[in-house]
Design goal:
The chain is mainly α. 81% of the residues lie in helices and 0% in strands.
């Protein structure tokens, strides 16, 4: 489970770092930019919920 969390955080970071310059170049209202923003936002919420769940269960988040 921890390995999947690390992979998920890594993929989220890569997508965010690739999306940010694209969004700056084409604008925030671009349909692709809006879709990626929705994906990033929803996965960020799920990652935060997973973190709260692990803190509540007193399980280590990454180690």
């Amino acid at each position: 489970m921890r390995a999947l969390t690390i992979v998920n955080l890594s993929l989220w970071t890569v997508l965010f770092m690739a999306w940010l310059p694209y969004a700056m170049a084409v604008g925030w209202a671009d349909p692709i930019s809006s879709e990626v923003r929705w994906i990033l936002g929803s996965t960020a919420v799920m990652l935060v919920l997973l973190g709260f769940l692990r803190i509540r269960r007193r399980q280590p988040i990454l180690g």
